[in-house]
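[job 0417] fold request received: indole-3-glycerol-phosphate synthase
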Amino acid sequence: MPETPAEWKGWEEKRIQEEIISKQGISIRRRPPTGPPTHACGPFDFKLQNEGNTPRNILEEIVWNTEREVTEMKEKTPLGALHKALPAVDPPRDFIGALKARKAETGLPGLIAEVKKASPSKGVIQPDFDPVRIARGYERGGAACLSGSFENLKAIREAGVQCPLLCKEFIIDAWQLYYARIKGADAVLLIAAVLPDQDLLYMTKITKALKMAALVEVHNAVEMDRVLRLPGIQMIGINNRNLENFEVDITNTESLLQGVRSGIIREKEILVVAESGLSTPDDIALVQNAGVSAVLVGESLVKQDDPAAGIASLFGKDVSRAAQKNETIFV
Ligand SMILES: O=C(O)c1ccccc1NCC(=O)[C@H](O)[C@H](O)COP(=O)(O)O
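[job 0417] inference complete; emitting structure tokens
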């Protein structure tokens, strides 16, 4: 129990924070509650598993690792250095505009194609991983936007790919928003299962100040309703993957868009993106009929040797810009 007034104050603040987090249905703890998952025991060289401090699921483990990584990255490149570097970076591209424009051109949801070698649930998906080759293929095949990690984004932008870029890192600290911009991001992913409302609001404001877009990701009805109550949200991603057990159910998109929610989304002019588990034209039709304007697709595309052909088979037709031009000429 706390003893000094300062300890009591810290204890009280932590309790209030925990109350807010549990009210908002946030299942992911930002850091181990009382220290690292294992601790040394006595003078001997062995460790005891500290059960309470073991991550409860893979997302929690990722968040705890990210917390350590970000602390180290901030030491190497403090916020002041990022501020100084900002003016030399190319201005952000219009991420939401690109998705809407592709949808208007093709009649199909705008595609955010994910550049990734591996995923937490499947491990390595594309052993012959060359981010620039894949990004060029996606652009040629008709993707509106691309997504990837800090390092992949930088390589893709420097190679001259024009599509707007989504930073698909696990964001837990506002510092990462500046870092993403420096690496060429035009949009960032904010996960409602990880970030309480206060953080979502603060981070969406910084994202806007940096002239980027925020894709706020939800997995369930509680998160969706929380995010719909927040002001200033322009884009919501509905993830069809259950974060606890990795099971994918693409009807999650449809379920979360039913009832009054679709009215609120229309009224607030929020662009909705369906995420995870999409691999066929039928899947695309299902989420499009549910009301989404864009899709985020990773595994089913990245595992193909020809990413452009992968996009055509995902949509059941050639949605490349070249095909679109020909259609316009011959109509
Ligand atoms: O993909 C995973 O295994 C995963 C596990 C835990 C947290 C997040 C995870 N993925 C992030 C994503 O959102 C997907 O990469 C994205 O929606 C694309 O999904 P897919 O088309 O199924 O690769």
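[job 0417] notes: The mean pLDDT is 90. The longest strand covers residues 213-218.
[job 0417] exit 0
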